[in-house]
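Before a computer can learn anything about folding, someone has to put a protein's shape into writing. The outcome of that step, for a single protein, is printed below:
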Amino acid sequence: MALITASHCLTSIFASKILTIMKIAVVGTGYVGLVTGTCFAEVGIDVVCIDVNTQKIENLNKGILPIYEPGLEEMVSRNVEKGRLKFSTSLKDSISQCDVAFIAVGTPPGEDGSADLKYVIGVAREIGANINDYIVVVTKSTVPVGTAQKVKNAINDELGKRNANIEFDVASNPEFLKEGAAIDDFLKPDRIVIGVESKHAEEIMRKLYKPFLLNGHPIIFMDVPSAEMTKYAANSMLATKISFMNDIANLCEIMGADVNMVRKGIGSDARIGNKFIYPGIGYGGSCFPKDVKALIKTASENGYRMQILESVESVNEAQKSVLYNKIIKHFDGNLKGKTFALWGLSFKPKTDDMREAPSLVIIEKLLAAGANVKAYDPVAMKEAKHMLGEQIEYCKDGEECLIDADALLIITEWPEFRSPNFKVMHKLLKGNVIFDGRNIYDVAEMKELGFDYYCIGIKTN
């Protein structure tokens, strides 16, 4: 009878927790952490975002964000003003009053491609050293299968050092945020995937996400390892579609087919769909390259070879040089002293992220060949200066970039590049040559306008 009473009391305690859950901690104020914390605050939850970087926290408290994401700055400001969003450098001072703690720190790739979990485990240890009541610890960072168990072990180790018997759960809640559309992705998700190990954790996480479910967006609960795998599988599938289409584009060009027509033909098949089948110069960013490498490494560590993903990675690396190869061929192998204008530096539009960006590969090759590079990007100029220094010339707009350039390279498909004044381009460019890495112009139209026009997957010369 005593056991039944104890169980009933424990259930009552958890029920009370679920009813009052309105405060969370998000550890890490990078892309995932800042968007996560801000969007939870937007729906009325009290959030404290924590980071060990004192300067970053000081800047956030002044309204200075470490990343560019459309709409995020205004949302941060609004929720800070309303008192729902706070920033701190102290996990110890923040965690004791929280019902859920998200771990959203970086998992940089190691030299062997594996995800480096030292920051995740470090946060877990700090949580274990400071919690005094039941909490759900959620891995939001992209982590390999088995990480939640490592987080659980680290917390238990710290509790053991304190001789503390405190209940907690570990859950996995992978993010599916597209840079440039992250706020919409969070507030209006295609799906919410959560891996849990107990009914209590499931109930708390369901309560936490209830504001996002009012429009029928699905929440999918599963075991923790499956949730961890879902994130890697999703990004690897999208990367596979991109590399497959780039491979097809290269063959189309050799065979005289038009990849844009092929894309339309296969994209109309509902089983394939029309997303992520646009040919280009390779994927970049902080997710696809890292996650593909990590999944390949995870498989290898478990005695399995991901042959398709190995090819995906190989095709993508080669694709980043496709535009450069066209340039070399057009100029008969001699680029010394020539000037190239680059439109776009970020790996995709609506972000300043240049990690693994094709622009970096192309710029490196052009400079090594003795060429000069001028560049313009609507939002990534600061990041470019940080990464490239004074190796290239930075321009205030697209037209300035064209002045006396021997050719224009379109690297990122920003909307403002889609309908330029071609007459002005003719006057400013020293050579009327365009190398379009994103196929944003019509081949026939460009020929009529008098440009030498090269793109991806269409034989133009």
About this structure: The chain has a mean pLDDT of 92. The longest strand covers residues 23-27.
